[in-house]
Amino acid sequence: MVPWLGEEEARAAADAVLSGWVAQGPRVADFERAFAERVGAEHGIAVSSCTTALHLALIALDLGPGDEVVVPSLSFIATANAVLYTGARPVFADVEEATGNLTPQTVDAVRTPRTKAVLAVHQGGVPADVHALRAACADWGTALVEDAACGIGATVGGKSVGQGALIAAWSFHPRKVITTGEGGMVTTDDAARAERLRRLREHGMSVSAAQRHASSRPVAESYLEVGYNYRMTDIQAAVGLVQLGRLDAVVARRRALAARYARLLAPIPGLRPVRDPAHGEGNFQSYWVLLAEDFPVGRDALLEALADAGISARRGIMAAHLEPAYAGHTAAPLPVTERISRNSLILPLFHTMTHAQQDRVAAVLHAQAGG
C-alpha cells in the first residue's frame, strides 16, 4: 500500500501549522462534519485512531466486566483488544469464507445470555451484510457496532458502509483508503451519545479546550466522568479534508485495478481472489487471495517468491485467537477463520500502481502455480 498524498495535503498541513492552532480545533470540527455527511451519519467524532474509536464506542454502550462481545477472530487484533479495554470479554466467532465477515449464523453459534454487543468488521473493505446482522441483533436485543476501519468508500445496498449504524468506527491509518497519518472517527445518529463521545475523548470535560479558548470570558470546566486523551489534531484533520475529496477517485481506481487483477489471475487454478458480495461493493482496501489446500506451493513460500522478485506482499488477515496475547482465551472451533488466515495473502494494490507492476505480480503467481 502506498498512500496517495500530494502538494494539496502538504499545503493544508502547512496552513494548519501557520494558523497557530495545531491541537483539536476548527479543522477537526470541519472534518467531522464533512466525514459524517459523506457516510450518511448525523454525527462524527474525530479521535486518535480506530482503536480508540472502538474503545469509546464500546464505553458508550456501558459495557464492562461480566459482559460479552462477539467479535471475529479474523481481524486485526485491535478489534478484540478494544473489548478487553472495557473489562468485557471478547467471544470469537467464525466468518463466512466468501467475505471474511461475520454472519447472523456465525454469531448465533457463540452468543450467550451475557452477550451485550456484536462487533462486526467490514474486513479488508469487503462490506459485511449489516442489514442481516442488524435484524438479527434487534431480535436478540443486542447492540451492533461496526468496525469500519477498512470500510470508507464501500457500499451496502448502494449506500455507504456505516449509514444507519448504531455506532461505527473508522481508521485513517496510512494503509487505509484515505489517511491522516494516524487517526480515526466514530459516527452515530444519536445526538446524546455523540455528546458523550466528545467528552470521553477529551478527559471527560464538560467544555472542550477549543470552546474554552474561543470564549472571551474565563470558563471553568468540570469533569463529568473518567475520560481519555483520544483527540485528533487540526494538522491531521487538514490532511483528512483533502483526502476525503480524493475518496471517489481512489475507490474508482482501486476497483479498476482489482478488476484487472481478477482477469490476470483467473487462469490460475486453486487461487480465489476477493470479490464483491451480492449485497454490496467493496473498496478493495486490501486485495487478498485465498489458496486452495492443494495449491502447488504454500502461502509462505509464495510470499518468499514474490519477495525474491522485488514484490512486497503480506500474509493474509490474522486470526487473533491464535496469537500469544490470547493464549488461554477459550474459543469455539473456527475452521473457516483458520483456513483463511493460513492460506491467504495480500497482494500490492495502490492508487499509483501501474499495469506493468500488476503484470509482474501476476507473472510470479502464474510461475509458482506451474502456469
From TrEMBL:
Q: Which residues carry this modification: N6-(pyridoxal phosphate)lysine?
A: K176
* Entries under Pfam families matching the protein: DegT_DnrJ_EryC1
Q: Which domain of life is it from?
A: Bacteria
InterPro entries to which the protein is assigned, alphabetical? DegT/StrS_aminotransferase, PyrdxlP-dep_Trfase, PyrdxlP-dep_Trfase_major, PyrdxlP-dep_Trfase_small
State if Transferase is listed as a keyword: yes
BP-aspect Gene Ontology terms: polysaccharide biosynthetic process
- Key words, A-Z: Aminotransferase, Pyridoxal phosphate, Transferase
Q: Where is the active site?
A: K176
Q: Report the cofactors.
A: pyridoxal 5'-phosphate
Q: Which Gene3D superfamilies match?
A: Aspartate Aminotransferase, domain 1 (3.90.1150.10), Type I PLP-dependent aspartate aminotransferase-like (Major domain) (3.40.640.10)
Output the Gene Ontology terms for molecular function: pyridoxal phosphate binding; transaminase activity
Q: Which PANTHER family match?
A: DTDP-4-AMINO-4,6-DIDEOXYGALACTOSE TRANSAMINASE, TRANSAMINASE
Q: Which family does it belong to?
A: Belongs to the DegT/DnrJ/EryC1 family. L-glutamine:2-deoxy-scyllo-inosose/scyllo-inosose aminotransferase subfamily.
Name the record gives this protein: Glutamine--scyllo-inositol aminotransferase
Q: Organism source for this protein? A: Streptomyces globosus
